[in-house]
Amino acid sequence: MMDSEEIIKLGHVIPIIIALCGTMDFFTRFLPVNLFSARAWECVGRFPIAEGPFTPSFRYHNDRSCGDLALMGNLPAYRVYRPETFTTNASGFRKNPTEDTTRPPDILMTGDSFAAGCGVNDDETLTVQLEGLTHRRIYNAGYMKIDLMRILRRIDQLHMVSGIVILQYLERYSVVPIQDLGYTSKETLNRWDRLHKIVDKSWEGFWQVSPVQILSQRLYRRLLNDRILPNTNAAKVVLGTLKNGRPILFFSLEAERFKQPPENIDLSGILKLQWELRQRHIDLLMVLTPDKYSVYAGLLAQPPVHVPNPPYLDRLSKMLEQAHVPAVNLLSVLQNQAASDLNQGVYIYWLDDTHWNARGIRVAAEEIRKHL
Amino acid sequence: MLFNSFIFLYAFLPVTYGVFWLLKTKGQRYLWLTVASYVFYGYWNWKFCFWMAFSTTVSYFAGLGLLKWKDSSRRRLCLVIPIAVDLLVLGFFKYTNFLLRTGEWLLNRLGHPFHGPVLDIILPIGISFYTFHTISYIVDSYRRTITPTENFWEFACYVSLFSQLVAGPIVRFRQVEHDLDHIGQASRGAFLDRAWSFFTIGLVKKVLLADTLAALIDPGFQHATQLSTTGAWLCVLGYTYQLYFDFSGYSDMAVGLGYLFGIRLPQNFNSPYKADGLGDFWRRWHMSLSSCLRDYLYIPLGGNRGPHWKVARNLMITMLLGGLWHGANWTFVAWGAYHGALLILLRFGHTVWDLVPQVLRHLGTFLLVVIGWVFFRSPTFSIAASLLHKMFSLQPGITVIGASTLVGVVLVAAVVAHGTPNTFELSHEWQPRLVPVLALGFVACLWVMYGAQPSPFLYFQF
Lengths: 372, 462
Prior knowledge:
The structure holds two protein chains of two kinds.
Chain A: H1 4-7, H2 10-28, H3 40-44, E1 59-65, H4 68-72, E2 82-87, E3 107-110, H5 113-116, H6 126-134, E4 138-140, H7 148-157, E5 163-170, H8 191-208, H9 211-221, E6 237-241, E7 247-251, H10 252-259, H11 268-279, E8 282-289, H12 292-296, H13 312-322, E9 327-329, H14 331-342, H15 358-369
Helix pairs in contact in A: 6-15
Chain B: H1 6-22, H2 26-42, H3 48-68, H4 72-109, H5 127-142, H6 152-160, H7 173-181, H8 192-222, H9 229-260, H10 278-284, H11 287-301, H12 308-326, H13 330-348, H14 350-355, H15 358-377, H16 381-391, H17 403-419, H18 435-451
C-alpha cells in the first residue's frame, strides 16, 4: 500500500492523469454524437456502414442549428440559428418522408450536399419539393460518391428499369466528377466485403470523432477571437455585405473560383454515364447548381471588379447542349430570384452557410420541373 | 508520431513502457525498444524505416570491421565507406533539389539558360539526426574512443531510440553506452519522478509557450513585408522564444522519455539566452550539435591551432556547414555565415568585448542572436532584408493580431528564458504542494492539444 505522500509524486500523478483522460476520451466516444454536434452534417456521416454516405436509420434534431461557414470561420456573431431535422433511411441515404420502398422510383436524385439537403429539414429537400411538384417518386441518393459504379449499382438495387437520373452538379468542382471504376452489373458486395466495410467504417467513425476533442475545440476556439489569439480560421471564409446592409459569408474557395474559373471542361465522364444509362433505358438530366458567390456577387455592396463573361456554368451548359446531354442551368433563375428577394430581406441561400435554403430549393425545383 | 499527440500518450507510450518493464533481459529490451522505435518512426511513413535500417546495418558492420582489423588501410576503409554512404544518402534526400536550383540559378546568371527538374524527393524525418549518430559512432570507433558493440540490437536501439530519433539531442554512443549495457538491470522506479518532471516541463514549454507564440506570430510572418516596426520586432522576438521553447521543450521530453527506460540522455540546452558572448551562446544552444561540429569538423580542420587566418577559416567552414545542416536553403547558409563572422570578430576582439559591462554583454549577445534568427526564419533574403529594415527604422504598417497577448507571452517567455533555472538545473524533487501545479500544467497541455491542431516540432525539418 502506498501512503498519500507516495501517491502525490509526479511519477504517479502524471501517468494517472494520462490514464484518466485516455479512459474518458475512449468511453465518451460511445455517447451519441448528437449531444455534441452543432449541426446535422457534422454527425450524420459518422458511421456510413451501409450503401449510403450517412449513418443508416439515424435521426438528428437540433433547435439551434447553424451554418457551416460561421462554424468553419469561427465567427459566432454571424450564426443564423434555426431548427434542423435530418433523418436517414436504412440504406444510409437521406430519408424521404414519403419514401415507398415497395416500388422502384421514377427518378434517382444524385449529387452532392445540395442534393442531399444539407442545412434543410427532411421535408424541404430538393427531392421532396420536386416530388411535390411532379408527383413522381424520387429517391434521394444525394452525397453518394459520384462515380459510375455506384450510380449503376444503386439503379440495380432500386430495380429501376426506366426513368431518370438527376445529377446535381455544383459549380465549384473543376471536373465533372464521374469516374469509371470498371462497373459490372453483377458486381455486388459479398458478405465479407460488407463485414469489412462495417468494421472499417465503424472504426473510422469511432476513431475520428472524439467528444472530448469537440468540446475542447469549442472552448479553445473562443480564444481565437482576434483579441486574445488570431482567428486563423477566418481565412477559410469571405465576409461580404449585401446591398441591403446584411452581412453574408462565402466559402473562400468559391470566391477564388468565381474569379478564376477553369478553362477546360472534360465531359467524357458524363457522356460515359449517359451512354451506360441509355443501355438501361434511363435518361440523364444534369442540374447545374451555382455556388452562392456566383448568385450573390452582383448583389454585394462592393461587387467583384472582375466578372467572368460568359459565366462558367453558362459555358458548361452550352457544351452539354452541344453534346446532347439534357441540362438545367440554375444560375440565372437563382440570380434573378436572389435580386428580387433582396429588398424584402429574404434569401435563397443561408447567410451563414454555403448551401441553399428551402426557398432556394423551391426555386430550383420549379425550374427543374420544366425539364422533366 | 508526435510526443504531443494522443496516439503517442494514450497508446504508444503505455504499451512500449509496459512491455519494456515486463521483459527481463537486455537482449529482449534492445529488441523491443528497436521495434517500438521503428513503429514510432514508421508512423510518419513506413518507407523511411528502410533508410534508417540501411544506415544502421552499414554502420554496424563498419563497427565490426573496426573491432576486428588492426591495419590502418582496412580501418580507413571502415571509416570512409559508411560515412560516404551516410552522407550520400543525406545529401540525396536533403540537398539534391537545392543543388539543382543553385546550379540553375548560376547557369542562368552566366548566360546559359537552363531549367533543371524538380525531383519529388520526400525528406525522411530526422535523417540529419540519425546520420550524425551513425557518423559519430564510426569516427569514435575509428579513433578508439569507444569499443564498437558486437550486439546488433544494441546498436540498432542506439540509432533508432524513439525519444531522440527525430529531433535530437544528438547522442554519442559513449554517452549512453553504460546505460545501454546495463539496461537489463535498470530499475523502473529509479528515475520515475525525474522522467515525468522532465516530460511535463518539456510539454508545457512546447504546448503552452512555443505553440501559443506560433499561433500569434505565424499570421504576422505571412505578411512579413507589410509589418510595422513594432510588429516586426514582436514577431522576431516571439520567434526567438518560440524556437527556444519548442526545441528545448522537445529535448526535455526526450530526456524524460529516456529516463522512463533507464537511459540518461545528455543536456541539449543550458539557458542559451543567458549567454554573454557568441562563443558562450554556442556552448549553450543545441549543445549536442555544437559539440559534434567541434569534435568532428572544427578540430579535424585544425581547430584553434595555426595562424589567425586558419582559425578564422576553420570557424567559418564549421558555421557554414552547421547552417547548411539546418536546411537546404541559402538563408540557412547566411545564418551560419553570420554566426561564423561574429565568432571570428569576437574571437580576435575579445579583449574589447571583455571590457563591456556584463549586462551589456548579455543584451548585446541576445540582440545579435535575435538578428540571426531573422535569416533562420525567413524563406528568402528579400523577406529577411525587409524584416531587418523594418526592425531598424521606423516603419508604419500592420501590427500583429492579438498584439497585447503576444507582448504578455513574450514577457513570460523572457522571464523564464533569462531569469529562471533551466530544466537540468532543477532538482526535480517536487514538494507535494507543487505537484498539483505541474499536474495542472499537464492538464492544460492536454486541453490545448485537444483544442488546437497538434503542432509539429520546428526541428523536425532540419
